[in-house]
What does this fold into?
Amino acid sequence: MNDQSIGALLLSSLSESGQALGPLVAVLAVVFLVFFRDVPKESLWAMVRGMIIAAVGLTIFLMGVRVGFIPYAREMGFRLVTERSAAVSIITGFAIGLTATLAEPAVRILAGQVDRFSSGYLKERTILYTVALGVAVSVALNMVRIRYGIPLIYLVGPGYLLALLLVAVSHSSFTALAYDAGAVATGPMAVTFVMSLAIGAALGMGGDPATEGLGLIGLVAMAPIICILLLGLVYKPPWRRKEHGS
It folds into this structure.
């Protein structure tokens, strides 16, 4: 990549980060001016510094995604299905789903907050690895789906039906946690790297990327929901034990 293309990529990433953060900054500024004029200046400057850091970080992330993640993941997916066996592509998909989720900032934040809320009874690592395992299974299943041309509805339909059935027998706290886990699992790591992997695999199989490659995010969102709900059936945090003892 030459200097000119890097410059164009930088300008494009800056523009996108500005479009993403601009409305939020505008709303926060209005809220501060209308409702929180007496807020200490230190807090205001802390917010400004945070926004600047977020804008720089988002710009760098977008550049990294376009330079490395997307083209590399797409090429990896293509080569996995054209040059390797089904077992290798499925195991690789599982490993990538697991590690990408462990690197997902939103999943770590959720796991940390659950740990604090439960006073350490629901450990951060327990939530983190449960969600990561669910995503890993969903990516592996998606590689199977692409490899053998299985329609998406055959996985998504029974999966979400199972999730609804588990909701009926799960504690409300785990139901809320499960659907939050499904949402945070579909963060930037999954959307950029894992989805590009699926699109590359679909291209390698000669299928339509819009039909075969897309749909993975739905699976990624579904699997952690099921895993957290299953965890709730065997895991009895303090508030459940109190209810059963009362």
The chain has a mean pLDDT of 85.
